[in-house]
Amino acid sequence: MAHTLEVRGVSLRFGGVRALTEVSFGVNEGELFSIIGPNGAGKTSIVNCISGRYKPTEGELFYRGKDITGLNPNARPSLGIGRTFQNLALFHHMSVLDNIMVGRHHLLKNNFITGSLYWLTGARREELEHRRKVEEIIDFLDLQSVRKATAGTLPYGLRKRVELARAMALEPQLILLDEPMAGMNFEEKEDMARYIVDLNEEFGMTVMMIEHDMGVVMDISHRVMVLDFGRKIAEGDPASVLADPHVKRAYLGEEDEVLVDPDDTPASRESAA
């Protein structure tokens, strides 16, 4: 299976502090790949390296075979890499619709040189096409009722959904989700988990997700990687990672206790309710 993303020996230091140490892994085409680990394990740091916010101190990053290690972060969406943030990064004074439209910016064809001619020819058609794509995303994420609302006035769970919508508007082949369910209640998590699975299965996006809800991670992920103190300590299918004694020690400090009940998944909790 072809790798969409390859991370080779990536280390990241801030002065004398090591955030990542020789982390290597690959994300397969069409995969839902999750990264877990205790607080401060380096999960967001690896996403920031992939998205270009940080440049690795050592190591290399490849996207579809292209070395992107030193690539400007603004150029990565054009390659097909989108992301959401652990802390919301919406334009709070703008409407939901306009926030999502911002995600289409890198797809616009006109520029300073061709602008005047373009407005006489294809600009209107392009705008209509962008609007159509945005409306599809609004329908997919059930945002019709708030499409004209100011983003900053929405409940937290809805704002997280709007941020996902904006990342979708980039039309990425690889989408990086940094704690997409953080701060959500149970029902909101159920909805978000369903949207993420549909992104992967219906939209065909390769998904790399950081998430703390172990039940969700184990329920929907194809493969899971575990970081601890900036090092990779486990990688594999959810069941094998869950059984790994290094993972149990990282979370609980004890080798012989279970990290989470393998039967305690969103689907099982829903059926029990």
UniProtKB/TrEMBL annotation:
One Pfam family it belongs to: BCA_ABC_TP_C
GO function term, MF aspect, one: ATP hydrolysis activity
Residue stretches of biased makeup (Acidic residues): 253-264
Function statement: Involved in beta-(1-->2)glucan export. Transmembrane domains (TMD) form a pore in the inner membrane and the ATP-binding domain (NBD) is responsible for energy generation.
GO cellular component terms listed in the entry, alphabetical order: plasma membrane
Species for this entry: Bradyrhizobium icense
Protein name per the record: ABC transporter ATP-binding protein
Annotated ABC transporter domain residues: 5-254
Region (Disordered): 253-273
Residue ranges that the Swiss-Prot or TrEMBL entry lists as coiled coil: none
Keyword Transport: yes
Entry keyword set: ATP-binding, Nucleotide-binding, Transport
